[in-house]
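forwarding from the other thread:

> can someone predict this with pyridoxal-5'-phosphate?

sure thing
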Amino acid sequence: MKYPAEPFKIKTVETIEMTDREERKEILKDAGYNTFLLPSKNVYIDLLTDSGTTAMSDKQWASLMIGDEAYGGSENWFRLEETVKEIYGFDHVVPTHQGRGAENILSQIMIEEGDYIPGNMYFTTTKAHQELNGGEFVDVIVDEAHQPDVKGDFKGNVDIEKYKNLIEEVGAENIPYINVALTVNMAGGQPVSMENIKKVKEISEKNDIMVMSDATRCVENAYYIKEREDGYQDKSVKEILKEMMNHFDGATMSGKKDCMVNIGGFLAMNDADMYQEATSLVVVYEGMPTYGGMAGRDMEAMATGIRESVNPHYIEHRIKQVRYLGDKLEEAGIPIIKPVGGHAVFIDAREFLPHLSQDQLPAQALAAAIYLESGVRSMERGVVSAGRDADGTHHYPKLETVRLTIPRRVYTYAHMDVVANAVIDLYEKRDKISGLEFVYEPPTLRFFTSEFEPLNDQLIAE
Ligand SMILES: *Cc1c(COP(=O)(O)O)cnc(C)c1O
């Protein structure tokens, strides 16, 4: 089916507060035109992120009741550990409070001053931890990933030539591992093919470089392999996922995405020595190696969520609901990143607002304008998210986008229609949208808390 109906029914509902445009004008101003700073009660449809926003199932809520809140050796930990080993196939698991907790431990163990860490496009927290440990991130994603209007089945792939060149240039001994994200968040949720994963593994093995995965959205990646890669149509997502993970030496996981929970994460690996080191660090930063920052009940809910995530009907609906929104926008001529990725639709803000230069923060302005017009919250993924270079100038990313991120199991197709219509209506008056300038900017991860003002009197000229 092109757009299958929700493979779940609704047992509990959460009322959405409505606001009008006049109210939103004030609310947006108070939030410094930064959608991260909006109170959630003032948001109609919240597409800020798919991180931790998942609706848990009745079985997950039931899992909370069997939380074993022991400081050491919680029952729920053993169930989580067993589930991760079974579904992803790694030998060792270290629990963490969320994905960046795993990134912190991995980076501390593996990276030495002056090392290079290749990856298929940067991710904010991943890159921050690599840099804090003296490493330098090097982007080795295929060129198409940076080209919003070029279609491709696997635009998240590692560019094998770029990777080989880097090894030649800096020496394999200065590359502790390559980090392969599945799917690639910052490229618009684009997947990586099994063939590409195998090639990366082959080259890395030859050069004695470890292959780690940012497995945050690995189930979504597995679905794309089933849909698009020869030889996988008759395999289940569960089988494909296990085959994918089999090619990695380890993985960091934000449980807030594909593990279907509101908080949690883990670091997994096959190497016993690395596991030993990770357990000695996890007690410093997270907690005992049998809870790592999570309550027993949270670990139980995550174990249940991991099993639900590989349900074939769930994952098919998930991918196709996101595609539905993308198709609606594309049919109306809205410039979006193609093809639509796994967790979000990305609007190409430079195409949408061609009258603004990147210094005028077009994606930030567009996200603010969407909220003002409709109450829909989205997120900037452009020059504001990319931060500044070492010399203090803006880092100008090729992609300047607004991300409409779909939470898992939260909204219906009717909500997607509202979002599509809001963006389409705004497109009609796009030339009236003003650029923004910074009025407050923090030193790191500035997109979270920066504040702005419109360059003209009003964000949208009336
Ligand atoms: C969310 C995310 C992370 C970080 O995980 P948190 O749970 O937010 O700490 C890392 N990598 C990717 C690709 C992500 O989307």
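The chain is about 40% helix and 15% strand. thats all i got for now
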